[in-house]
Amino acid sequence: MANGAAPAAEDWLHQAHVDLVGLWEDAAFRLYEAYDVIAGPRWRLELDAQPYGEVWLIRDGSCSVALGEQHVVAEAGQVAVLRPGPRRVSANAGAGPLSLAGFGCGVMLFDAIDLLGLLKLPLVLPHPSDRLRHLITETVAASQADRTSRAFRAPALAELALAEIVDLAQADLPDRAGDAAPLPGVELRPEVRAVLAHVAQHFGERLELDDLARAAHLSPKHLARCFRETLGVAPMAYVRRYRLTRARERLVTGDLPVSRIAADTGFADLAHFSRAFRTQFGVSPRVLRAHARALRSTTRSARTSFPDGPDVVSTHT
């Protein structure tokens, strides 16, 4: 994508449509990773696009964050909120070590569409509540504890932290006056839900429009019309989005080879998978994995023999 810009956050899905169809009720919070970073004065992290949301609590020092055209410096005690979107550059803005705790997350609709970008959230909360600081810190602690805490406690705490951020920011859905007229407000039909369930169960297999139509007991033409009326996207475009989102989760949270992840999520050709992934998220699969590993590496360094952490991490394509 030109200039490394990420696609607009679900720009085909706008506020009026989400409200009218009642899609917020079907959204689910996802915690992708949590990290505890101590970095040296020269620490710098660059990413061609911000593929998912991140929340950072600056504990000591100061952190410079540039997200697209926005640029702020988050000081100790403040919270940075990075929405999915354009190129991001973050760096230690002070002369001493930088310490931060944070997590990566999404608000996923049917495991395929991230609604986090629809929320109006500031890049920095200058006066976060003690409760928010505590929730972020406890999220990181739970993610480093036993398996049960990682599976249940950490995601629950992170979701509460995001809810607190929304409350503190007095966030609301963006006003999109002047955008295209919203799609008709209709309920999500049982036939469409049947297709969503079918995709969730068989996304790693070969899927054609006829397969989805059979799952819904509709003709392909009728199914396509139902999908566009309720989700604003064609059925096979939804399948691709779902596959790419599941691939993103596996890239961030696991260590399987990229080729294996591509095959497991329904892409027979690695080159095709990489192109589709970059088109959707603004970064290549390998760059996204490098970003996640860079944060994990910084976290590990903070606990072992490198008290200053790594200096420079660049994840350009």
Task: Characterize the structure shown.
The protein is of the alpha+beta class. The protein folds into two domains: 204 residues, Jelly Rolls; 93 residues, Homeodomain-like (Arc Repressor Mutant, subunit A, Orthogonal Bundle), CATH 1.10.10.60. The protein is 42% helix and 21% strand. The protein has ten helices and eleven strands. The strands form two sheets. Strands 1, 3, 6, 8, 9 and 10 form a six-stranded antiparallel sheet that branches. A five-stranded mixed sheet has the order 5-4-7-2-11, with helices on one face. Helix 2 packs antiparallel against helix 3, helix 7 crosses helix 9 and helix 7 packs parallel to helix 10. The chain is globular. The protein starts with 14 loop residues before the first helix and ends with a strand. The N terminus and C terminus are likely disordered.
Summarize the structure.
It contains ten helices and eleven strands. It is an alpha+beta fold.
Which keywords apply here?
2 domains; six-stranded antiparallel sheet; HTH_AraC-typ_CS; Jelly Rolls; alpha+beta; globular; 11 strands; five-stranded mixed sheet; 317 residues; Arc Repressor Mutant, subunit A
Provide mean pLDDT, rounded: 78
Element pattern in H and E: HEEEEEEEEEEHHHHHHHHHE
Count of beta strands: 11
CATH topology of the largest domain: Jelly Rolls
Overall tally of domains? 2
Helix segment tally = 10
The level of helicity is: 40-55%
Class from helix and strand fractions: alpha+beta
Sheet-strand content, in percent, reads 15-25%
What would you say the CATH architecture of the largest domain is? Sandwich
CA distance, first residue to last residue: 11 Å
Task: Give the full name of the CATH homologous superfamily of the largest domain.
Answer: Jelly Rolls
Largest sheet: 6 strands, antiparallel
CATH class of the largest domain: Mainly Beta
Rg of Cα set: 20 Å
Principal-axis shape equals globular
Return residue spans where pLDDT drops below 50 for at least 5 consecutive residues. Answer: 1-21, 171-186, 299-317
